[in-house]
């Protein structure tokens, strides 16, 4: 075993420690990184041979989120990690993006980077640590790579930039900017924000790039001290003779096609015909020529022709200039039964977003190392094969779909009203129906339209636009609203989303070695102009969120009760809450603090359910009238349950205006009767009067008559009078079903389901309050 080597630096106000030589000695490069009590292990390994038949670089980056890192056992039947969580996929993508552009062009050896969480203290973010660990592992490995890169998180807290703030500190930040770069330039940007300005974001990028320099310093120190010699690899290169022969056959025809056809389909048809003509001519003349290589030469020539036309003629493939946005259109109300829907179209890109509202308990529960435990607003993005006129197996969302869905979610989330104002869980699904570039930002626009159609009171509408860059080292062009060809053949895909007031999300994927501050500022300003134009188009379709929810959406009503009375709403074994949901066709969600959400499509029934819950949880007060059920009959009166778990005594003298010889002459067990509360004593015992309701007495009149009966005023045919009064008072007559007996029983036994009493548990069904 090699001796362990440690290297440390300070980033922001935190120590970052890299170590190598102790763990994973057979990997091409293995580095652990520690910040606080967070510890990650990154390995970078390259295959010894080229993977034949590939026309792309086979790099894979895996972020392995292990629950043991936080001292937890995974949920589920198997109790082990399964497929990566959404957060793990996003961290893998975040790590991949700054590393990929720095590998040599034409490299076909497989490279695999695996980052494993070994310890998580729930205080420091793991995603930026993963990028730095992977960069360090590649730097000291034998794989050829033009790094290192450093990565930092930039927060904006109390009007000041903060480098790598903790999870707790980020709660007060207006900006969550993750940035990676080399010594000279920024390579990757990912951000969520609370409507920050373009100028502030440019400042943050510059601040972050300066802050990452110590990380680059320490990685270069590691390379000098413990780095392996880089292994020579065979790069895929085109045969110069074949390139020349292909050029002779092509002439200027590719440039002519690019100049003649501005429509994608027409241009593709012309290029397909030319491609097949050239390939067939080669195969007829020399069958040993590799047709795949010929097609690759043609693709290279097409790329050069398109880029030159953009840079030197100022004309894009579809005939636009640098800043023009493709034709825009939008609609709402596409789905008749969904809670809200929006259709957004930009050129040949078309996205349909559909909203579903639910109760707070339908929020997503997260089981991972992320600081989030639940997610109330969810956005999912689907990219089916028909959207590009292709076919492929559909086996669930790919990493790209997860990443695009998260980007749009981050863009819209800051504009979702707080739960206190809009107590719904919200899920939006964006279906890409047609794709020709910038579908992630089209999903931002379609999501906004759908939410406004639903009646969600967004703080402000959100739109997004994708920017592009073409550069030959001497000249550059920043493009607004890039289409598919520009994304594929260009040097940058820079997505910016926000409102009229500022940026809410940003993501940059770059294929060149870096982007200067000046270029970044120009792209952001150009994106702002495009975003405002798109917002104007959207607001022409629906100027503001609908003032009322879609008729198909559940009506959510909220009430707050004493947490001690939650048990009265739930009932024994959940019987009461199930009965309420079935009777009123609602969904009821109870929070631990006593907040109750009642959701139902029929607003009137939801309001009835609210009134029933209020009655269940209301403390009986003298003068209130209830419809209750007779639950027990004695010779001196009847006990009537006025709300589940709480009953009181109706003395025989207060049962009827007529003189009664037996209680059964007026009521039977199980009868429903209307009664007035005439008294609640200090022990919570309730005295009721049926006669007061029948006679129309006031509370004072009812009490006066009841006092007379206590003194023997109405004999009740020998069963009333003193005997009835004595039994009612001395024997605890009108006692609550909790009462002191229930309380003692619940208190002595420590039961959470105590049916009342002074010392009852959280699910007290009545008794002393």
Spatially, the strands of the biggest sheet line up as 8-7-9-10-21-20-18-19
- Tally of DSSP helical segments: 20
Strand content: 25-35%
Radius of gyration equals 36 Å
Helical amount? 25-40%
Mean pLDDT: 89
Largest sheet: 8 strands, antiparallel
Can you tell me about this structure?
There is one protein chain. The protein has 769 residues and is α+β, with helices and mostly antiparallel strands. The strands form six sheets. The chain has an eight-stranded antiparallel β-sheet with strand order 8-7-9-10-21-20-18-19, sandwiched between helices. Strands 1-2-3-4-6-5 form a six-stranded mixed β-sheet. The chain has a five-stranded mixed β-sheet with strand order 11-12-13-17-16. α1 (86-99) packs across α10, α6 crosses α9 and α8 crosses α9 (291-313). Residues 712-769 have low confidence and may be disordered.
